[in-house]
Specification:
496 residues; 22 helices
Length: 496
């Protein structure tokens, strides 16, 4: 027990522990498949055969980013640890429970990512001359920023004013706000599902509905990008300055942003804000958060999904235990099961798409024909479901739908390169409030790889847009700083 505790703190390398206990680990896996999962010879062999992949994957991730050092969780490490919980381990249950034609390709895709992604991370480390000491230096280093100057306040206020005004326009355009309707009419499942779709998703011009509008993309990025980022930035400047103005801005931003995220009763946006804020505090505090703080943040993150699950999607008055079980399944088994659908459909029920899935945002922007794969998969799984249904899945989904096993293998390697490349870019910059907010934003964005495609992570979930937002924020700050400098210079020349 002592050895495990020290390894979690990073004092004893995780691989030393694995090397010392490798025979016991393999015996444990064999016993597990025999006692718990044993049903067929094929399945038991698959479980035993996966053990070396698992051990090798842990070794590669530990060498690349010290994945099991919980005091210095990196972007790839957070993705990896959640991938184990949301995709890797549940995939064995999915494989065991289902009998479709794509189950072997599905399991191969899940297993291969355990190797290809770490290899991509190690490749970037080698190319960039990056080592794990840089991670330690970033986390243990102080904030390289003093109390924010007036230019930051001006720029932040401009962004916030635009965001708040846009929210009021959005809310005024709704006949019924789903969140308020849910509080007044809990349990009306079908009506609330319709309201959820009409209040947000059907505003997307791709549906061509009566309520669709190009302004939808502003509304979308307000929810996925602008408000989460502004909340973290205002929190950071508040912690540095202890200034009442930043407290006011933080409260206004948080209340408006969280209400806006909650208004459509989609469960993920509110939880996503809390997760980003939690990671921001984690990095700001140099990886040291108290147990009570962690418990409060975890409760806040799960609270809204829990309330919506019970009030909006609970059938027959679900009790507390049933609701907790449904939320837990949604966070574990469901992502792995959703991924399997793509392997059942392609190529058995639909030919490979050869880029139409991955290039969908580009094709949409160009006005060209595109394949809305998430809607297609939803209709395949739920033929009588809502017309605008959306079934997204982990990053292997679109890679397989486009190019099969080649896409899965090459895509996993490129995902590792992308993830670690962005992390290195951030860690080699000054540790400022904007930098920590950017880092925390990327943690969540790449976590979405467990539930979404590479293109959705890059665009909708904000990897590329947030980099542009930071550039714009810095550029506007320098502009206002230059204007202030010129005014002071003119005032100095005019004095007798």
């Amino acid at each position: 027990m002592y050895e495990m505790k020290t390894s979690l703190k990073g004092e004893q390398p995780m691989m030393d522990l694995l090397k010392e206990n490798l025979p016991a680990f393999i015996l444990y896996m064999a016993a597990l498949c025999t006692v718990v999962f044993f049903s067929t010879a094929e399945f038991s062999l698959i479980l035993i055969g996966s053990a070396p992949v698992f051990v090798l994957s842990i070794y590669l991730m530990q060498e690349a980013v010290s994945a099991f050092n919980i005091a210095q969780l990196t972007i790839p490490a957070f993705w990896y640890l959640t991938y184990l919980v949301m995709i890797y381990f549940p995939s064995f249950f999915v494989f065991h429970d289902l009998t479709g034609p794509g189950r072997h390709a599905y399991l191969f895709a899940v297993q291969s990512a355990m190797i290809t992604v770490p290899l991509g991370i190690l490749a970037v480390n080698r190319w960039c001359g990056f080592d794990k000491e840089s991670i330690n230096a970033y986390f243990t280093g102080p904030i390289q920023e003093q109390a924010p100057r007036g230019e930051k306040l001006i720029v932040y206020t401009l962004f916030l004013s635009f965001a708040v005004a846009s929210v009021w326009v959005y809310l005024a355009s709704l006949e019924t706000i789903p969140l308020l309707y849910m509080l007044q009419h809990p349990g009306e499942v079908e009506r609330l599902i319709v309201l959820r779709e009409e209040s947000f998703k059907l505003l997307d011009p791709r549906w061509g509905g009566s309520g669709s509008t190009p302004v939808f993309y502003i509304y979308l990025f307000l929810r996925t990008l602008v408000f989460p980022f502004l909340i973290m930035v205002s929190l950071g400047y508040l912690l540095i300055s202890r200034n009442g103005r930043w407290l006011f801005l933080f409260l206004v931003t948080s209340v408006t942003g969280i209400f806006y995220a909650a208004s459509s009763i989609a469960r993920a946006p509110v939880a996503a804000i809390v997760l980003r804020v939690a990671f921001f505090l984690y990095v700001f505090k140099q990886g040291r958060l108290g147990k009570k703080t962690i418990a409060v943040l975890l409760a806040c993150m799960l609270m809204f999904p829990f309330v919506v699950t019970k009030m909006a999607y609970g059938v027959g008055g679900m009790d507390l235990l049933d609701t907790m079980k449904k939320v837990a399944v949604r966070l574990t088994y469901t992502p792995a099961a959703d991924l399997y659908d793509y392997f059942e459909i392609f190529p058995a029920h639909h030919d490979y798409l050869y880029g139409q899935a991955l290039l969908k945002p580009v094709l949409v922007a160009l006005g060209s024909d595109h394949f809305y794969i998430e809607n297609y998969v939803y209709k395949y799984r739920y033929p009588t479901g809502v017309a605008s249904g959306h079934s997204n899945a982990a990053f292997q989904s679109n890679l397989h739908a486009d190019f099969g096993v080649v896409g899965v293998l090459l895509g996993g390697f490129l995902v590792g390169i992308l993830m670690q490349g962005i992390q290195i870019y951030i860690l080699r910059r000054e540790k400022t409030v904007l930098n920590i907010a950017l880092y925390s934003f990327m943690v969540y964005a790449f976590w979405v790889l467990n539930m979404g495609s590479v293109t959705s992570v890059l665009f909708v979930n904000g990897v590329i847009p947030v980099l542009l937002l930071v550039l714009l924020f810095n550029g506007m700050e320098r502009l206002f700083g230059f204007v202030t400098y010129l005014r002071k210079a003119d005032a100095g020349r005019s004095m007798p």
